[in-house]
Sequence to fold (207 residues):
Amino acid sequence: MIGRPKLVLASGSPRRLALLNQAGIEPDALRPVDVDETPKKSELPRACATRLARAKAEAAHAAVQIDDEMRGAFVLTADTVVAVGRRILPKAELVDEASQCLRLLSGRNHRVYTAICLVTPKGAFRQRLVETRVRFRRLTEEDIAAYIGSGEWRGKAGGYAAQGIAGTFIVKMVGTYSNVVGLPLHETLALLSGEGFPIRFGWINGG
Fold:
């Protein structure tokens, strides 16, 4: 264990943590940061995701630098944006928001963008943006009402969680499933590995 670099996941998302764990990685600390995620006027979805992942990384890196225990750790952040065309859908917190999102997605294609940002121990920022195209089947009002009743949509970009009941709404996906859940695993591991983080450490040690 001596000498192994530390990793801070600057996210409060249990889905992102679960995805990292699935890849055999256990972050040394979870340090969610609070940034304003409101899209800027006329901001395109790709640009919005990239900007927010970077903003989270900058805030988390600054916090880690004044933490004796985690100073010098790798810091990983991500931001997921769901869009129909140029329109960015909200991270639904209200029933009306979620219902509106589902009606908009019903029977249509949309895109899910996740930007990841890794801050290295030397303070360098590395970013990737991953896109997945998703198509929903046509949803009935009963489908929407039942899904709203599940509560799974709360706080989710686009008002749905692909890993839950809404997975039954998806008829086609082009790209990475883990990206839709919130953390594109292949690109995340490639980023970590490329910067010298031992991504197979957990597997080798059976943990």
